[in-house]
Amino acid sequence: MPVPSRPSGFRLGSGDAPVQIEVFIDLECPFSNKAWPTVLAIANHYENESVAMTAHPIVLCDHRQSWDLTKAVVAIAADDPQRAWQFISHLYKHQADYSQDAFDHKTRHDLRQLIEDLATKFDPSLKDSDLAQQISDEQGSVASRAKASVRYAIGRGVWSTPTIFINGSPVPELESSSTRSDWQAIIDPML
C-alpha cells in the first residue's frame, strides 16, 4: 500500500492548533447522522480558537452504500475541507434515500444515480461532471484517498461510528447522544 499523498480526512482549522479533534463517521450510519449537528455546532463554536476538527468518512462493513458515498465526498471536496463538510451535511439530510431499507432491492447503479442526483442538488454545476466515473474507478486517486481514510481508521482501532479522538486519544464518552455542553466540558479546560 503506497503512502497517501496527504493526511486522511478533511480538517477545519490549523494543523498546529493545540486541540486536535478527529471525528470518524460513516455516511450511512444513523448514529453518525445523529451526532453530526453537534459536531457542526462544535466546529462553528471553536472556529476562531485553538481547535481543529477533522472529519474522517469511513466505511463500516454492514453499510454497503457507504463506500460509493465516501468516494463521492472525496471527489466533490477535492482539496477543500469546507466543501467536504458541507457535502457531508447535505448527504446526512438525505440519508433516508440511501439507507439499507431504501436500497434493499436496488442496485449499485441505482445508488450511483442517486449520488449524482444528490450532488447536482448540492451544486448544480456538478450536473455535467465526471462524478460517476470517479466513483466507479476503484484504482483511481479518489478511491485511493477514500481507502487511506479507512486504513487510517483501522490503524487507530476504530470499529464503530461516530468515534471521537481528541489530541490522539479516544474519547468514548462523546458519542451520538452527546450534547454541545458535553463536548465543551471536555474541550474548554484544554484551552
Tally of helical segments: 8
Helix content: 40-55%
Rg, alpha carbons: 16 Å
Terminal CA distance: 38 Å
Features:
globular, 191 residues, 13% strand, single chain, 47% helix, five-stranded mixed sheet, alpha+beta
What does this protein look like?
47% of the residues lie in helices and 13% in strands. The chain has 191 residues and is of the alpha+beta class. It has a five-stranded mixed beta sheet, with helices on both faces. Helix 1 links the parallel strand 2 (19-26) and strand 3 (51-58). The longest helix has 16 residues, at 30-45. The chain is globular.
List the helices and strands and how they pair.
Elements lengths: L9 E3 L6 E8 L3 H16 L5 E8 L7 H12 L3 H13 L1 H4 L9 H15 L8 H6 L4 H15 L7 E4 L2 E2 L9 H8 L4
Parallel strand pairs: 2-3
Antiparallel strand pairs: 1-3, 2-4, 4-5
Give a brief outline of the structure.
The chain is an alpha+beta fold.
